[in-house]
């Protein structure tokens, strides 16, 4: 392969800059923000082309950030758009409208390219590769408990993927969730899509927005048991959420064999919680939860104790950073119960699940946009996080409190995750219902 050389004949950068970027970009960009990463990659490409004109270089992150943010493809998303796709129900809701394929492409581009610096001319493939390399992956959670007389790792199957959604992407998704909430309050969504119960005590009354299927948490007034209500209709999954699903499948977070076809949005006020439970088997495994606005802990244990309103005690606590995806599978989904203690600040989560085909709503039809999604292949193995050392698992001897772990069991530390964008705990007005 031909290479560039300096005056002494020493090699600089191979002409195949794409191969060079794929091999060395994790080392060269460690600790850099996405803007600086793109600037560095662009300069490597200029070297490969033999261009060493100092006047053509940008002045760095601070100057470029203003321009690139303005020109970002993020601005292509209409903040006021509340359109939905009708793809997966036989009968569409009168309040829904079709979204063109070009609009879906804009949404996809928004999520794949947070900021594109015009001076670096990185290809879309290179930008996706860079973002993929920034994702943290933790798959070796361990908490051994005695279950039915046997010692079992109750966390087997759990995975935490961090930095999946950038700060700008999170803001856009949160804005969209708030627009959906406003639509629900104005009765512009199907009746069972939106639920905002009146708060009658601490931890009770979080807002839920369901798409794809109507899930019943408890026996309802009509006598329907917990699970999917097959003869009820809710709105289909919105285009933006389908784009999130595509990313998680492409980035090897969710398997192609378990592409979600339903989701539920939870909007928490400070103090709202989810009591101990195991997700219903009307949904197949794995499923996942994406976190926004503020970090909170999720508790696991084969026997979680309720200490009071919004207060639970369990064996293992995992912090959920904003922009992260928690995968639940195996023992972590079916042996361990999980709960979310009263959250310290306003929070949004979106849980994506695939329905058991035997439990599909009667009018459900597969969405062609969610079929045939191919995992991203950068022509090299995906980066793997190094295995955790035993010293990384800290004992927590607190036995009680809001989301405390029981004594002599493990709590996973915040410091073991890659840093993410700051959280925002802005509080909305109290429910009007």
Automatic annotation (TrEMBL):
GO terms for biological process: mRNA catabolic process. Residues 70-83 have a biased composition (Low complexity). InterPro entries: AlkB-like (IPR027450), AlkB-like_sf (IPR037151), ALKBH9B/ALKBH10B-like (IPR044842), Oxoglu/Fe-dep_dioxygenase_dom (IPR005123). It holds the Pfam family 2OG-FeII_Oxy_2. Residues 259-356 form the Fe2OG dioxygenase domain. Residues 406-426 have a biased composition (Polar residues). One of its GO terms (molecular function) is mRNA binding. Residues 60-105, 363-433 are annotated as: Disordered. PANTHER family: HYDROXYPROLINE-RICH GLYCOPROTEIN FAMILY PROTEIN-RELATED, OS06G0138200 PROTEIN. Belongs to the alkB family. This is Fe2OG dioxygenase domain-containing protein.
